[in-house]
Amino acid sequence: MGSNPASSTFELPFPLPLDGGQTLANAVIAYESYGTLSAERDNAILLCHALTGDQFVASPHPLTGKPGWWERMVGPGKPIDTGRFHVICANIVGGCMGSTGPGSVGPDGKPYAMRFPVITIRDMVRASVALLDGLGIERLHAVVGGSMGGMQALSLAANFPERAERVLAIATTARHSAQNIAFHEVGRQAVMADPDWQGGDYYGSGRAPDKGLSVARMAAHITYLSEAGLTEKFGRNLQDRPDGSRGAKSFGFDADFQIESYLRYQGSGFTQRFDANSYLYITRAMDYFDLAEEHGGRLADAFAGTTARFCLVSFDSDWLYPTAESRHVVHALNAAGAPVSFVELSAPHGHDSFLLEHAALDRVVRGFIG
Prior knowledge:
Elements: E1 6-11, E2 16-17, E3 23-24, E4 28-34, E5 44-48, E6 74-75, E7 80-81, E8 86-90, H1 121-134, E9 142-146, H2 148-159, E10 166-170, H3 178-193, H4 210-224, H5 227-233, H6 258-270, H7 276-288, H8 299-302, E11 309-315, H9 323-335, E12 340-345, H10 359-369
Parallel strand pairs: 5-8, 5-9, 6-7, 9-10, 10-11, 11-12
Antiparallel strand pairs: 1-4, 2-3, 4-8
């Protein structure tokens, strides 16, 4: 089977119903696919991306030129083997890489901006299921996701239990904690405090809230790391300067420490590929996510009647979605009688560990995907 990526778009043939009571007409989903769909259409894997991800999971990003965000995991002979499986990764509704989002043109010919309807994780999943319907894929071999992608994987299993044989959710949660919401709110306020945000109507103005979005990215990026990882990589090391000196010359506000320089680099690079309004909408969707609340307040009821096999993976240094969150989901699956395996892996890199080299994670993914 081939493994060359194919970029495509799919316009939903019906208005997408949203949890907020509105509908989104003429919604477009942009996606990448890898590998060949079997004649029986039974080898498809849906990959769900995280907050700052997109559909370019195993192909170079068109704006930055950087490798796909999970290129180490997806490809011929890799744990998610595109020589065997047809892998689909779609940019979520509300995103900014081709799928309909706040920057898209609305029915009146103007960008939606903050007129875009509020979306939820379940809305994102509805759009993905509509895409699968359009592709003629009734049942997935597996749905896979990490972080917000894991939320989508769990939501698909709960709301469309017949659509996936296997569900692999990595470094994720069934609901956002107060701390999660608090960090997101700091980021949103940074964006909205930037004068260039202009109430969200910055499209076509030549000005965008890049400074605010950069600060939001910096704050969020801290939550993706671990104290041990930061200490090992940066410690209190001072920044080398062009003149050969090091550290603070006049105790000003330049990037005196290496960690400061690193965060500023992360923030500035992010603004090149992400839309600030999309960031507002997607973080809000994550904050609204509560899988138990969607199903009467009992998480086990969310998985009643599921026929899928589940695997949950957490990392011991992840304090954004700690292992206790995965165990909470595992206990609910046990109560629902669903087959589930669970592993906590040791890694020094915090929440981002699922994106980085990790031989044990590779073995888990390869073994579960089958």
